[in-house]
Amino acid sequence: MSQLELHSVIALLEDMPEKGLSRGQVGTIVAHLAADVYDVEFADLDGRAYAFVPLREGQLMQLLHERSGVAA
Fold first, then answer.
1. How far apart are CA 57 and CA 1, in angstroms?
2. Are 40 and 28 a contacting pair, CB within 8 Å?
3. What pTM was computed for the model?
4. Average pLDDT, the chain
5. Burial letters 37-50, b for 16+ CB under 10 A, else e
6. Looking at domain 9-62, which CATH architecture does it have?
């Protein structure tokens, strides 16, 4: 998943009850902290941030908004 960049939209792949987050919640990468660690902002539909969490690449799935060019 090396295509993660600043402003990539992601989905969380695991529950994080200690952070108030559930698997499937959508966030945006706002900083690259280390080799495979990103700071992710989670915001409501009005754009108000409710969590900033450092997450490993393996905890994230990049969401795509256009065709990948691969036939199913």
1. 7
2. yes
3. 0.85
4. 92
5. ebbbebeeeeeeee
6. Roll (2.30)
